[in-house]
Amino acid sequence: MKIRKNDTVLVIAGKDRGKKGKVRFAYPKEQKLLVEGINFIKKHSKARGQARQAGIIDLEAPIHVSDVMLFCDKCNHPTRIGFRLLEDGRKVRICQSCREVID
Ligand SMILES: [Zn+2]
């Protein structure tokens, strides 16, 4: 998957369109990302023992990778991701806008 943990992404679809957040988890199999502060859902929880409170809690839910774009902090733009092969054989991601190496 092109987007990874700790990347900053911009949401381009859905109710959180236009918001930015940091990727907390990536789920390559599902092609989904859990992004900080994005896609809150309300979940009912029942009190179980003393540690948990009953009521409605806000939880972040994973969103599909096609609903976000990588946000490049070098050129400050949402961007598509390209790849470059380094001389030592490593493949790194690059920003398609400013051509800077992302990782
Ligand atoms: Zn850039």
Describe this protein's structure.
Helices cover 0% and strands 47% of the residues. The protein has strands at residues 8-11, 20-27, 32-35, 40-45, 55-60, 63-64, 68-72, 77-79, 81-85, 91-95. The protein has a 6-stranded antiparallel sheet with strand order 6-3-2-1-7-8, with no helix packed on it. A two-stranded antiparallel sheet has the order 4-5. Strands 9-10 form a two-stranded antiparallel sheet. It binds zinc ion. Zinc ion is lined by residues 72, 74-75, 77, 79, 95, 97-98, 100. Zinc ion binds next to strand 8.
State the gist of this model.
By secondary structure, the protein is mainly beta.
**Strand order across the biggest sheet?**
6-3-2-1-7-8
Mean pLDDT: 92
Q: Give the low-confidence spans.
A: none
Small molecules bound:
zinc ion
Chain-wise SSE layout:
Layout lengths: L7 E4 L8 E8 L4 E4 L4 E6 L9 E6 L2 E2 L3 E5 L4 E3 L1 E5 L5 E5 L8
Antiparallel strand pairs: 1-2, 1-7, 2-3, 3-6, 4-5, 7-8, 9-10
Bound molecules: zinc ion.
Q: Any key phrases for this structure?
A:
single chain; 103 residues; mainly beta; six-stranded antiparallel sheet; 10 strands; 47% strand; elongated; binds zinc ion
